[in-house]
Amino acid sequence: MNTFPVPHKYPFDFRITQYPDFPEDPNNTLAIDWETYYDKDYSLTLMSSVAYVMDERFDPYLVAIKGKVQGQDIHFCGRPSTFPWDDLITAHKQNPIRFLAHNASFDEPVTWRYLQTAGHESLEWLTENFLFLCTADMAAYLKYPRALARLSYELRLPVPDKSIRDKMKGVDFTKDEELTTERLNYAMGDAKNCLLAWDRLQNQWPQHERKFSVFSRRRCYRGVPMDTEALDAGIARMSEVKAEVEPQIPWDWKARGNKTPLSPIAMRDQCVKDGVPIPASFAENKAEEWEEEWGDKVWWMQHVRDWRKANTHGSRMNRMKISTQSFDISDFMHFQQMYCGAHTGRSSGSGGMNMQNLPWGEIVGGVNIRHMIKAPPGYVIMVADYSQIEPRLLYLQSGMTHILDMINEGTHVYEAHARLTMGYDDPCPLKEADPYMYKLAKFRVLGLGYGCGASKFQVLCKQAGFEMTEEQSAAAVADYRESHRAIVNYWYEHDEWLNQSAKAQDPTYEFKMLSGRTFAVYDPRYVEEDDPPYRVGVKARKNRGDSRISMWGGTMTENEIQGTGMDILKHAVNELKESELRYWLLDSHDELVFCLPKSDYKDMADEILKKMTNVPWLPDNFPLEADADFVDMYQKT
Q: Over 80: is that where the pLDDT of 262 sits?
């Protein structure tokens, strides 16, 4: 049984918290960059790095290493078999070496896999000791581009020519003549720039952020427990759904040479044939009014959507299957997650599978993808999420602490909102007495806190399942803003400072968050719209090197609150003990998911919830709460 990169029969024995915790020493720091075979069917865009490394096509044909070991310069680029790995490992055991990679979630398992299969060290030792820090993660935290070429440009380093890398796709590098000087220089350039970026920026990357980066990556290597029987059945069911709806699609897409029936050209042709106008977009969230108006004639559109959903669901599950391995305890699926993938500091999906945003309301053909993640025998899944953390933080920052006082006294945040601003005065809990008002209060709290206008709010309410006229939506927005002047004023405080930065042409607009982290956007400038009414507004870059987008105080408020929520979650993860963190499966915005042993899951859950709600930089009376649900398979709770 091959369980790379987890060298245990029981994956929960894998040490998530292992971290290269030793002083920085430029005389013992190396950047390592691998070049491996890939083609259109075998690449990191289609599978996790672990699945890629475990594939029979895996061929690490070139390695570039740059830095110093015990003060001696290392400058190597060539076949990995010609590098003195045993000497490097011996030196590392004597005096720890800081290993760096730009995208450690790839270069770290490649290194482990190569050194293991070449017989240099055991997988147990490698995964415990031969550990990397990721300069792409460092760059993302500091809001530089993740891509090394773009980062190099921003840091004024020699910019690698990525067209050389593109030409390496599918090349047979077993032939030495393919290792041209141009290609060797390209690989060496990546290792050099990785090391130079580290030298420039590492002092700005805090230790607690580095640890979260490593813990998150190792958690992904360990993976999540899977119900592979349900996974196989789900894949088969998606094929059935597609076969069921294909005869209902009126154009012969196979005869047209299309791989799928989703061709916009074919749909436009069908509109012409049916005598209906062509919508600007066939996307479900943009063509809703068009479908309502022409529903009798465009009945085929629903079948197209059913086919698309089944195809998307099937693709997700196929990626899950590719990345699943068998262990004694259960099957586990390795995955990837991008640390600071969003400019707020939130994580994002990677490796062809977004575990941050698994569909929860979208059940296709009776298949729920979240249910594929299932607790092994003797374990239970704990879904722990923060209670309305964003609106609570917004009330705190805007000074509406009287609502926080009501929450501390036991009133639900949405009910507190309804009692203070919507005229609800019944002693009975709102959710029981008036479910509609409760739902509207919830959407007012969640949807209007960052400056959402009436039109958008109307759409959001409709997507949530209840109708609202334009007049009702406008009235709700006006009422919210009138009753929440403190929040509106908070938007405009941000807006005033953002405008001042744009007027002064500052390089950044930045502010300190509750956690002490500095949040910034870059190069704010006044820009006139290209189309009527030619309004002038502020545009800025979310990250260094990005294109400018429109921003205002509501945007800044939303970024601040979401970023603070992520800082709270990161703090909780870093506070967990090894005996708790080893069972960590997923995180998604305000949610942490664990798979705990049934023998003592209640006591463990209590300790985890305590750490989730003990954040020293929040006010003592802030109502930070977290709830836990215990289920056999992952689901929205």
A: yes
**Domain endpoint, select from 172, 200, 222:** 222
Q: Helices marked H in 386-518 — which ranges?
A: 389-398, 401-408, 413-421, 430-433, 435-447, 454-463, 470-483, 485-504
Torsion region of 179: left, alpha or beta (phi above 0 gives left; psi -120 to 50 gives alpha): beta
Q: 413-421 and 470-483 are packed helices; what angle lies between their axes, rounded to 10 degrees? A: 90
Say if residues 95 and 70 touch (Cβ distance below 8 Å): yes
Angle at 368 between CA 364 and CA 371, to 5 degrees: 170
CA torsion angle 425 430 434 435 (round to 10): 160
Q: Which helix (H) or strand (E) holds 52?
A: helix 49-54
Claim: this prediction has a pTM higher than 0.90: yes
What is the structure's pLDDT at 401?
93
Query: Which one, of 312, 326, 319, lies nearest residue 226 by Cα?
Result: 326
Domain that holds residue 255: 226-333
**74 and 186 both lie in a single domain:** yes
Residue 512 lies in a domain: no
Count of the separate structural domains present in the chain: 4
pLDDT at 465: 74
**CATH number, domain with residue 572:** 3.30.70.370
Give me the CATH number covering residue 188.
Answer: 3.30.420.10
pLDDT per position as a tens digit, 74-129 = 999 999 999 999 999 999 999 999 999 999 999 999 999 999 999 999 999 999 99
Which stretch, 25-34, 164-173, 185-194, 273-282, has highest mean pLDDT? 25-34
Rounded CA gap, 333 and 47, in Å?
11
Q: Which of 570, 481, 184, 9 has the alpha carbon at shortest distance from 473?
A: 481
Same domain, 157 and 239: no
Q: If DSSP codes are grouped into helix, strand and coil, which group holds residue 350?
A: strand
